[in-house]
Amino acid sequence: MPIVLWHGMGDTCCFPFSLGGVKKFLETEINVHVKSIEIGNSITEDFKSGYLIHPNEQVEMVCSDLSKDSKLKDGFNAIGFSQGGQFLRALVQRCPSLRINNLITLGGQHQGVFGLPNCPSLSSRTCERFRQLLNYAAYTDFMQNFLVQATYWHDPLNENKYKTSSTFLADINNELFVNKTYVDNLQSLNKFVMVQFNNDSIVQPVQSQWFGYYKPGQDKEIQTLQESDIFIEDRLGLKKMDEQNKLVFLECEGNHLQFTKEWFRANLFSYLM
């Protein structure tokens, strides 16, 4: 079965030292067609998309592109890296024309982030500027339309503002309204595999990679997915998926997206065969 990859912030589809290398590794080891999603018409445009093209627009573009790919018509497995994880989940929920078998997210931010400790591929000054903008203006119309990371900024100190102002994450997490189509489409997956990097210095909090997050009203104590309203009220169908053994929680000792080929083989190949 073919494999589709979606890169994260500060990366592109095809750098040989990142997703280009992963693509080659999978093609060689599993001997399948691998498509690495590229947004725009060049590597430069693809890189910028990770910061400046709204996820809603990206998901719509990718839905159209993949739906036309004859090599994917009989279904495929999908792997999302960092923010590419929640983008691929949005694709599952919003693009029923695609037949996605297993969804694997590595270091995804399914409940968002509250903090931006490090920004890959950006200078420290630029990263600090992004942090300042997100801390003070994440939910303004300008920021929600200008900066990708603002669309999954989740302020646990102001849950209502997050739910009413987030233009991406609050929607795909059914925070305000339960979109039954999202629930049905997500449940069409065979397996939803979430990989958490236990020593991650980029995703804050780390537990967002497993759909965990800060308990509302503070930013110290963490609640698991199973303790959250999204699970207890089954707003996204995750409780039902868990009961059906469709949710898989894996962990990797390492920093953000730092895994070995041996770890990848041992833990993920069974979901790609």
TrEMBL record:
<dbReference type="GO" id="GO:0008474">
    <property type="term" value="F:palmitoyl-(protein) hydrolase activity"/>
</dbReference>
<dbReference type="Pfam" id="PF02089">
    <property type="entry name" value="Palm_thioest"/>
</dbReference>
<keyword id="KW-0732">Signal</keyword>
<dbReference type="GO" id="GO:0006898">
    <property type="term" value="P:receptor-mediated endocytosis"/>
</dbReference>
<dbReference type="GO" id="GO:0005764">
    <property type="term" value="C:lysosome"/>
</dbReference>
<dbReference type="InterPro" id="IPR029058">
    <property type="entry name" value="AB_hydrolase_fold"/>
</dbReference>
<dbReference type="InterPro" id="IPR002472">
    <property type="entry name" value="Palm_thioest"/>
</dbReference>
<keyword id="KW-0378">Hydrolase</keyword>
<keyword id="KW-0325">Glycoprotein</keyword>
<comment type="similarity">
    <text>Belongs to the palmitoyl-protein thioesterase family.</text>
</comment>
<protein>
    <recommendedName>
        <fullName>Palmitoyl-protein thioesterase 1</fullName>
        <ecNumber>3.1.2.22</ecNumber>
    </recommendedName>
</protein>
<keyword id="KW-1015">Disulfide bond</keyword>
